[in-house]
């Protein structure tokens, strides 16, 4: 389990976790947006750096977009698609998650 469902508030702070890839451990995060949970590698499409400016802070002030704290790239929280900034047509790497029995789980 990544976290409990109650830990994710709509447009609120995300929960950081790690995933194992062939190249090693990678930072990742899960957020709730419009009632659904979404997870991504914590890596900007513009420059491979983590997005959050403080641990778990992924949304911009409007709470409508995920933002890279370093360069201001904006991403749609429901797709990871870049919508503004230097990431130009990039996207965050989606991680499949499911919410069930009061928890959020990585699939696969």
Quick synopsis:
With 108 residues, the protein is mainly beta. It has no helices and ten strands.
Characterization of the model:
With 108 residues, the chain is an all-beta fold. Helices cover 0% and strands 39% of the residues. Strand 6 (74-75) and strand 7 form a beta hairpin. It starts with a strand and ends with a strand.
SSE string, helices as H and strands as E: EEEEEEEEEE
- The domain count comes to 1
CATH superfamily: Rieske [2Fe-2S] iron-sulphur domain
- What is the strand tally? 10
- CATH architecture type: 3-layer Sandwich
Shape: globular
Using only C-alpha atoms, the radius of gyration works out to: 13 Å
CATH domain topology: Rieske Iron-sulfur Protein
Q: What's the average pLDDT? A: 96
Largest sheet features: 4 strands, antiparallel
Oligomer: single chain
Helix content: under 10%
CATH level 1 name: Mainly Beta
* Helix/strand structural class: mainly beta
Number of helices: 0
Report the uncertain regions. Answer: none
Through-space gap between termini: 12 Å
Strand content: 35-45%
With strands numbered from the N-terminus, the spatial order across the biggest sheet is 2-3-4-8
Summary keywords:
108 residues; mainly beta; Rieske Iron-sulfur Protein; 4-stranded antiparallel sheet; 3-stranded antiparallel sheet; 10 strands; globular
Describe the secondary structure blueprint for this structure.
Blueprint: E1 3-4, E2 15-21, E3 24-33, E4 36-41, E5 66-67, E6 74-75, E7 82-84, E8 94-95, E9 97-100, E10 103-106
Antiparallel strand pairs: 1-10, 2-3, 3-4, 4-8, 5-6, 6-7, 9-10
